[in-house]
Amino acid sequence: MCGIVGYIGFRDAYPIIIKGLHRLEYRGYDSAGISLFDKELKVYKKAGKVSDLESFVKDIDLGGTMGMGHTRWATHGAPSDRNSHPHSSGDRKLTIIHNGIIENYGIIKETLISKGHVFKSDTDTEVLIHLVEDIQNETGLDLREAVRVALTKVIGAYAIVIMSAEEPDLLIAARKGSPMVIGVGKGEYFIASDATPIVEYTKNVIYLNDNEVAYICRENLLIKNIDNTVQTPYIQELDLKLEMLEKGGYDHFMLKEIYEQPRSIRDCMRGRIYPQQGKVQLGGIKEYTEKLKNIDRIIIVACGTSWHAGLVGEYLIEEYARVPVEVEYASEFRYRNPIITEKDLVIAISQSGETADTMAAIELAKEKGATIFGICNVVGASIPRTTHAGVYTHAGPEIGVASTKAFTAQVTVLTLMAFYIAQQRGTITQSKLVEHLTELNNIPELVEKALKSNDHIKKIAAKFKDSANCLFLGRGSSFPVALEGALKLKEISYIHAEGYPAAEMKHGPIALIDDDMPVVFIATKDSSYEKVISNIQEVKARKGHVIAIVTEGDTEVKGMADFVIEIPQTDEAFVPLLATIPLQLLAYHIAVMRGCNVDQPRNLAKSVTVE
I need a surface site. Which of 35, 113, 396, 599 has the fewest CB within 10 A? Predict the structure, then answer.
């Protein structure tokens, strides 16, 4: 959500910034802007895409070796040129870009207006740069100190970069609750919301911590906390390759990422499972082995697709580790007064590791004494640094806004955690563990096989691309798969879709069934197979159109469904990893046929870093 890019050094800043903004487009945005310093401070901004900004400035001299850029996802103020970032102070000597929300901006704005400040936008961000200006005017403080003081007066979340016309060798960056990374080069520094705009230029990065302010010049960097204490930054090397950020010949990042799942699932398991020994090894949580033997309950907190993965995890952990599991929307959990004890384990799941609601849920659970594990895809993100321990998914960068490989990676890690906890608690036999791990080790090959149905799925998509509604139904651990399938379809094709437990159809949704309603069933041969067949018959009796995900070789469902998509036979525990694949492809092809922007669906952001 929103994107920040900054540069100071010896190169022309504009090409670096504009390329960086393109790299951050996946985060979701509605406007873009840049600020450059070349003898004077220049600001250019435009509602729309980064390409619209490029067209707007194509005939302008864009020199300068210091600058910053921003893609905005509207919160305060509608998408427009005037609400786009950067925003300037009243005297135009300062400019700012900002991710996050300043919650008390209204009170500050009223005070500043009473002092004569005039605002040109509806944003909370403009209020912050006017506050810095006001502090300087009233106290005579230098810019560094004025920014620090201003940040002590605001409530909310922010990642900011500030430039000054009077200090052409200084960028000031700060964060609280919104991600920011600094790339370290030789005689140059890069700033961004995540590492994707930086990896082309340097592998060495610093992840700013909450309440830290960075003062960045061409030859040096100083980081202090909000209390003005100097901090010693930790420089780490990026495990990210530039080619991971390219489409690699695919039409869309989403399709590329769907096809990367055999590799990403394998990477999740590498070095963690030993099928012949019947052993799971998770180094990130091994220090908590004794804790796992004595926990009373597991609470999984997540949002969106990660919440669906958590639901799959609930089935697996309860089945194999025999521990009660609750799966909570982080956005709701944080506003309750949940009953949490020191004998609870909280597992927080987030692809980006920056989800604001999940971060807040973690802090709440920590205050109550729970042990917190994180499941995250981005090394160095806030959640891995905040939790007590955790497991990275190693799925690689996911650029498509609609999660695909992140979901199956999260399910894979939760599967490993279920077996690991079961192993520690002695709730699974060694022979059963050998059997399950052997089957799990084969899943990447089975996913490759499931992907071969792509052309068949594309034909089915053509039949239903003009549908107004769609139902997705499943039982057991296939119910979360149904939820995820519905989410993918609505996210990228804008078709209204709902997922339900198949048995719940008779408790309301069956009223929607008619000859215009496609119904997608996960109908694999498992413990609920006969029950799902009954549900299919109920839909067919009401003239609904049935698309069924079935086990390879199934003839019974094939005889009653309008369309079937086969997936390879596997153990019931691993069906979610396979059944998800055709649902992702179905949503993708329908969206493409409808002319939708698959990688950047409207109104959505990849990482929701504000409430």
Answer: 113
